[in-house]
Specification:
Aldehyde Dehydrogenase, Chain A, domain 2; kinase (chains A, B); homodimer
């Protein structure tokens, strides 16, 4: 184990003397010691404190303390504070006279005397404490100063005194701030702690090709610790910290060593750790049985490459086998599902619609199996399809072929039937897959995943699909940007939005909103208008392709058609909100909309008046989400202009917005609906899980052969590709 | 104009009494007053200071002061500080006795007396100043306290005294901290300042559908100021701030009003403003002649929609016209180009290669025109192509057609020939385009853009392509995520990396690195190996498709082939670095590589030894960048396995890596090379600038017609699409 400096340590003594096994348990910590590495409290130049960081630390400690925890700080920084203070005082006394006569910038230009660390510590201690006190006062928290030396711990009596002092302070809700009594101890080794890249412990010298942050460190791994010279970390630095951490762990205190200066984590590192997030290195005595999520991703990518290289009929076979298992082993599945249902009802936390979605039945499993068999057929024509073939020159042939994207992460809520569906999609497209399901379906997901692996094993690729522990935080998974190529959230639009926010650097396939419009033109057929509005709004109001705003041609106001539409909506108990222009036409209007961009997702909609087709298009461009928009008219010319102009993923003429769906479009299987403008748009089928690669076969050609002096010429002839052509 | 609260103001008095016209000039500000709104220094609950923000403000002020500027702070926060302090003292005195007996959490449970603001201010002032002093000391900066009341400014003598005090302090390099003497003035109106959404001034009540932050505010716009009741901003809040800003502006002081609490900007808001970034609202007396970049984007999107709706032959005509203009008006172009060249030589900042790329000539313009005419032909078959046609049911037909992506932002360096090329690509694909060129080519770019607009005007879409002012910061452009759909950087890999980092939420088409491998198999032909290695490394070493690592089968070590390859590389003056395994085979090895992931971009490469094809594939997967990888072998089976397994955008057999290029692939025009895994991969032609939309034509069908009780059935019949079929 190699490790860098610049660390913040945090240890979480467990009341009953047993350390926590998992990060997720850190939430329960009652007493927390925050030890600040000197790099955390000082600035890079070591002159002066890093005030912003210090303030952030105080804020986080205050938040935790005010949650009822007992917080302690082991600080450093007195030397830095004192050095800056002494330097300043000395320069000031030298310079006041000159400054008065000759103007500014004197201070900076003067030479700084070399200052002794012990003197600095003495001069800085009181100022540092005053700063802590002033800062904690802002959170109604009292602090107390505790100065100790090494020897204090060797004296039994002193140790007992210290212990009882600390206990008394904690009992009085006071935060003890502990520091070395630097004025009476040997000065610290300079820079012992400040080198190296920094986030926690690494498995190789930080900065080298293979260095990876160790997420969880087990005492058993200590043998492999090598204090590499490359890491330039002094003995007083990280080795001592690891030893202290292991010693604390033996005493039942959990420890996390993390970087307190990384701009990516600064601001929340302490509270993030307590919330169980993957920050720094967590010391644990309990080695979990399974692989870490990083190991799972690696295994999946590796097996996925084999999956991709299978013959299409082999992938088809795996999917058919999974379909078979779903019906053959339905008793096991339903038993596990009943267990989840019972737990969900017992806790009573889950709302009824979610419980319905959680439940499986024989008929659900049967139709799931039918869907999988259809997908198996579709899978024949996916990976390795030749899209384009070009004769670049004589005996130099180029092909563009479809290949899997790589490793997919699918995050789904509640519905366990999602698991075999998504797995089959991944198998059909040759992609590796990480599955993260909801906790409420964990028993069902577990058996379904086992069956999936069983099916995969017939061609030796059972690792290609991995089920991620429910303990993993979605946010942590979204950070694996070097390992995951595409994230597909399947669930509420809130889930999608959260993931889009968290997934920095990984593309997300999905849509977070569907503000769909139906425009009733002046030339609309009354029957079609009624049917389409009713179906678009009422068939399934929570769907993303449901109508949210009804746009009506102004000539239709106060016509029988208009009255019938309103009557129908009232009869269907749709709550109507009026757009500003619609409201201005009415004497007694319904409540005016707050925003024309609202996605109601319920039996509610907005009605607005427009001057005509062009005005409707402008409204849709201004307030829509480019999902699905509909025109109802009998005028073909108006319709074609609407279809051409509206810049949405789906544009319909005289058809319900609810048709915007992979199954209804006949795409075979639906991966999701995308409102992104690149890669895949609208309902996405299997091809949304594929990308392409270019394969060039030559006989030693170089580009200089094609230069003006060269012997060869580009031909660039298209070679026709047969439908469904494979290499 | 409506506006929210929570503001930090910053004013930049110009020494000679004239305010700055543009944000970019703010860098020159010598004297800066930072006024902190009360929301900036207090926490949300108004009890206590926002210490992190305060520390960050101190740090930024210190940085600017230490750059030699004269900084002043107008603070607030004494009341908050004092309120918290008094509350704490009172509670403490009440509770110490109880706490000693009954344990913790007493403080929180006790009732807090109502405190008078003036008393709080008096109690807080000294603490606040002590905090400022302690903080600034950490940056070697002295502070001074100045307390004033309204009346002090009405008394001529007092004003003069104040003025001379401030001047003297600034002369001595001391930061004056100015505050109201709250103890002797009427208490402030509570919350007058704390409502609303917050980043600066808005053109509509913040939070409504249309509200946009005003980037630059001109005094002439003041008539349109409406202090809307919706914004809930008291008179003492924003109106007073705008008035003060305009008054300061009249006196020659530039003002920026910005949000100091938005987490997106906090941390750097003050230094960002001084660096000229688009933060908050800038007050300027000089109204720029042209539209803002936001207006340009809107204009481009609007005209782009018309461009997209033109007939293919009309877009073709525009491109041909542009090609014509490039030769017809070459004198104008070359004159402007000479001006740029002279300026570049005169300043002497530009390195020679960049100057070469800047220069245009008649022959360059001619070949540019030829390229454009080829693109015109290719453009016929781009927008509106039918990719798929499905009969969903009787009289319900679905089409998937190609459409433009929307608004592209192309950022290019030096080479002005990029402008007509990229413009022609945008026209061919029906996309709107924002162009951001380098300052060094501004004259050439200007005339080339004029000609482009001239060509566009033949079909009334001259606004579809906009040239962005050279003053605009790339970083600010990358923030327009609701307005721009795709960014294409054309330039160095550093430019691409910077833009990928800055472009949060907007996809970037490009590659930041190309670590390409050539693997020489045991069955390689010696001649092919020599030619391919030489061409791949030496033809153009700076290209992204040049070889960086040469992988050699271990059986080839110490064979004549191996020696010839090394001799050839030496002859071509290629510096060789040894991979760890290669180094271990040699007695006197070249310098060992630092990382096997290095992109040298020069006449340098790494050589590593592998056990065979499979080992080469593993090496490429571990250390490559998935750009272009090559196998040299005569064994077809080995080759096909390599082509199948290597997971890169381009995989070649017996051909130079330098063929990875849009022109060489015969794509007609190259948009760029992408190493992304979605949307477009490898060399990208016109189709990389297109997306699709789904068009459904029905006669009133609803999805309930297809339910079990319904009357209709899905057919999902494929309707064949003729090659190049258009709707």
């Amino acid at each position: 184990v190699h490790f860098p400096g610049k660390v913040t340590e945090i240890s979480l003594p467990r009341p009953h003397g047993k350390s926590f096994a998992h990060r997720s348990e850190l939430k329960q910590a009652k007493r927390i010691v925050v030890k600040l590495g000197s790099a955390v409290v000082t600035r890079g130049d070591e002159c002066g404190l890093a005030l912003g960081r210090l303030a952030s630390i105080v804020e986080q400690v205050a938040v935790l303390q005010n949650q009822g925890r007992e917080m302690m700080i082991v600080t450093s920084g007195a030397v830095a504070f004192g050095k800056q203070r002494l330097r300043h005082e000395i320069l000031l006394s030298q310079s006041v006279r000159q400054a008065l006569h000759s103007g500014q910038n004197q201070l900076k230009e003067m030479s700084v005397p070399v200052l002794e660390a012990r003197a600095c510590a003495a001069a800085g201690q009181s100022g540092l404490m005053a700063l802590y006190e002033a800062m904690f006062t802002q959170y109604s928290i009292c602090t107390a100063q505790i100065l100790v030396t090494n020897l204090d711990f060797h004296d039994e009596q002193k140790r007992r005194n210290l212990n009882s002092t600390l206990h008394e302070l904690l009992r009085m809700n006071i935060v003890p701030i502990i520091n070395t009594n630097d004025a009476v101890v040997p000065p610290p080794v300079p820079n012992s702690d400040l080198q190296g890249v920094n986030v926690g412990l690494y498995d190789s010298p930080p900065g080298t090709d293979d260095a990876k942050l160790i997420d969880i460190f087990y005492p058993g791994d200590q043998q492999s610790v090598t204090y590499g010279t490359k890491s330039r970390v002094g003995i007083g630095g990280m080795e001592a910290k690891v030893k202290a951490a292991l010693w604390a762990l033996q005493g039942g205190t959990s420890v996390v060593i993390a970087n307190g200066t990384d701009p990516k984590v600064t601001g929340h590192v302490i509270t993030d750790i307590v919330e169980g997030k993957k920050v720094g290195t967590f010391f644990s005595e309990v080695k979990p049985a399974g692989p870490t999520v990083e190991q799972q991703t690696e295994m999946a990518r590796h097996a996925g490459r084999t999956l991709a290289s299978l013959l299409p009929e082999q992938r088809e076979e795996i999917i058919c086998c999974l379909a078979e298992l779903l019906t053959e082993r339905k008793e096991e599945i339903l038993t596990a599902n009943r267990k989840d249902m019972e737990l969900a009802s017992a806790t009573g936390f889950l709302p009824q619609p979610l419980i319905n979605r959680l439940s499986l039945s024989t008929s659900k499993l049967n139709s799931l199996a039918i869907g999988l068999r259809q997908l198996a057929v579709a899978s024949r024509d996916s990976v390795g399809r030749v899209l384009r073939r070009t004769r670049v020159a004589n005996n130099l042939e180029l092909e563009q072929i479809t290949v899997p994207i790589g490793v997919l992460l699918v995050i789904f809520e509640s519905r366990p039937d999602c698991l075999p569906q998504v797995s089959a999609l991944a198998i059909a497209s040759g992609n590796a897959l990480l599955l993260k399901g909801g906790k409420e379906a964990s028993n069902t997901n577990k058996i379904l995943h086992q069956l999936t692996q069983e099916a995969l094993s017939i061609h030796g690729v059972s690792d290609a699909i991995q089920l991620v522990s429910t303990r993993e935080e979605v946010e942590d998974l979204c950070r694996l940007d070097k390992m995951i190529d595409l994230i597909i959230p399947r669930g509420s639009s809130q889930l999608v939005r959260d993931i889009q926010r968290a997934a920095k650097g990984i593309p997300v396939l999905g849509h977070s909103e569907g503000v769909c419009h139906v425009y009733i033109d002046a030339d609309a057929s009354i029957d079609k208008a009624l049917d389409i509005v009713k179906d678009s709004k009422c068939d399934y109001p929570a769907a993303c392709n449901a109508m949210e705003t009804l746009l009506i041609h102004r000539d239709l106001l106060r016509t029988p058609m208009f009255d019938q539409i309103i009557d129908m909506l009232r009869q269907e108990q749709v709550k109507i909100h009026a757009g500003p222009r619609f409201a201005s036409y009415l004497t007694f209007s319904p409540s005016e909309v707050k925003s024309l961009r609202t996605e109601y997702g319920d039996l509610e909609c907005c009605i607005e008046v427009v001057d005509g087709m062009q005005d409707a298009v402008d409204h849709i461009h201004k307030y829509g989400s480019s999902h699905t928009d509909v025109i109802v008219t009998e005028n073909e010319e108006t319709a074609e202009q609407f279809l051409q102009q509206v810049d949405s993923a789906c544009v319909f003429w005289n058809a319900s917005s609810r048709f915007a769906d992979g199954y209804r479009f006949g795409l075979g299987a639906e991966v999701g609906i995308s409102t992104a403008r690149i890669h895949a748009r609208g309902p996405v089928g299997l091809e949304g899980l594929l990308t392409t690669k270019w394969v060039l076969r030559g006989e030693g050609q170089t580009v200089s052969d094609f230069s003006e002096q060269g012997s060869m010429k580009y031909l660039h002839e298209n070679i026709p590709v047969p439908q469904g052509g494979f290499h």
